[in-house]
Amino acid sequence: MTTTTTNTISTKHFSTPSKPKPLIFKLVHSKSILSNDDLLQTDDYYNDGPFINLLPATDASLLLVNFSIGEPPIPQLAIIDTGSIRIWLICSTNFAHNHLENTDPKNIYDPSKSTSFRKIPCRDALCPGNCKIRDYPTCPFSNSYGSKQFVDGVLAMEQFTFGTSDDGIIQQQVLFGCAHPSKSAGGQIINDPRFNGVFGLGDTSLLSKIGGGKPKFSFCIGDIENPDYPYSHLQIGSGVEFEGASTPLQVRVGGAFSVVVDSISFGEELLNVDPHTFLIDTGAELTYFGRLWYPVIKQQINDSLLALGLKPNLVLKDCFDGSVVDDLKKFPSFRLHLTAKKDMVLNPINLFYQRKDAYKVFCHATRSFYLNDFTSVLGLTAMQGYNMAFDVAQKKLYINQVDCQNYISN
To answer: What are the Peptidase A1 domain coordinates in residue numbering (predicted)?
Structure first.
């Protein structure tokens, strides 16, 4: 008798874990002429949702992020700033009415009307230790800027509401600076109708909290000359993807981020510029080179413009007659050679801007950094056409030249 044994193989089907998605913010240009209805339109590509219904002013090139604060939630627009360690927002109602002339009063955040607002006392562990009296009921905060402007107020906890790309919401308790009018001397308080405050990307605890535990973020900067360009965006969270080679990222005290530029080349020539630090500052429109290096760089740029047959404008300083798009097609390549053999190419659109108030006149988008001889600042104009991805925990920066419309983590 023959016995036949049949072996049955059990097969299990394992589902692939879904990849975490980053929190995606559409960046709003400060020169956009947008109505409330325009801002309330939703888009599967971004998390517009019901959070934006503010009207940005029209007199500068900044990029703003939208979210809501408080309970009930009040929509806000704040500058994305890689040079700030904290979010701060206008809180005082009287000051806010003067500050945001174009904003509907219902969009002005009044902490006294929020059920989720909590001031931080000096004795709290969240207070950074700048209290003169430990038992004082409120912990002060202040931020100053290179333009001699400043803002101050108190630290507080509040509920922030962020929209997601799938029409959901994320709510988090966030430590922020609640700003109010200052009577301090020696500077000018920030009083600008373009924004409600600053969204400081140097706050690694915030990045970890709203990003699923990992301090990672990226932003893609499109055409800032076009206020209606719709694809500039910010991503935060563990779902942010990194591509290509990286350069070491320095996370500086105070929350600023910087990289080291080993050398700079212009065309085939290596400029006489020593290795130095470049701060990455989305709160600056222009790029600033250290005072020691700027004369060399400016002279090379001007000589190349003259060699192309372009003439300096007789009225406007640091400007030339012509068109960035039409007349600079043969302009030499300008390269920042970063540590770890990573290059960042600055094209004409990164080095110049076209004047809107003068016919066929363009100007330098670079300046001398009046605060430092050896440090430079990379501003928004230089980052046009780039995706900048920050792995804060690993201290790496990934820089890729891309079309923002087609570049977003899936």
So the answer is: 63-400
